[in-house]
Amino acid sequence: MKPRHFLLIAPIFIAIAILNGLLTSASSDDQMRALTVDGAERTYALHIPKGFDSSKPAPLLIALHGRLGTGEGEEKLAHFHKVSDEHGFLVVYPDGLQRSWADGRGATPSDQKNVDDVKFISALIDNLSAKYKIDPARIYAAGMSNGGFMAGRLACDLSDRISAVAIVGASLPTEVAASCHPAKSVSVMIVQGTDDPLVPIEGGALRRDGKGGTVLSHDDSIRKWLALDQCATTPQKDAIPDSAGDGTSIRVETYAPCSGGSEVRSYVVVHGGHTWPGGQQYLPAALIGETTRNLNGSEVIWDFLAHHSR
Q: pTM of the entire structure?
């Protein structure tokens, strides 16, 4: 039995759900809020960085949780609020309905109920822009797993508002890739582990029964964005060695220049699992794979995003 099959049994998903429930203690600096979209109340946590100057236009990062997660759980996993305090951007952690996002795979409760999460994120940007001086040229999205797939969908369907995205533990859903025609170029960063048991780096059908939808491989997702962004196809190659001694290392490929000043970057975590680089090992490595300590994912993601604006 391949390792990924251990994650297909119900008790593991229950454990993840319980864990996400335990990780929903928001930072004391966060503000819990709600807005109504298509008749449904949508909730989110907003982190305002320390020393925030409301008179100046500020970047906004939309951080998207994984399936069975919450916005507050994503905060605990990625710790973007710490990066926010250091670099002065707003970060919002929205909640998907039934702990899911309609990411285009047709596999989640939100997808199956035809929830328009692209509309929700657009409305969320409007809502925050009415309250704060959000810089429209510096709006970004990042997500893990189901949230990573959703970030990719936003790059396709909300490119007129989002300048760059970071996708972790995910790739492009096959159906989203087939219909992806962004109105503007979007910079894209994709991080995947070679030993991810939930979203295999080689792509294909997710879950043994195929009900998780089908996704492109990591390499095909990168190639798709190279074509969409009209990038140079010869990358700059870098390597991050295993200085932490955890058995992981990282291969980095950067593709530029691309149209509109955009960029595509690939991070392949060798022996990495379905995890956030530098984040919490939220379940044992025997179940989800290793969390690399050779990369601070949130810092690297912000550095990538912050270099791309319109």
A: 0.92
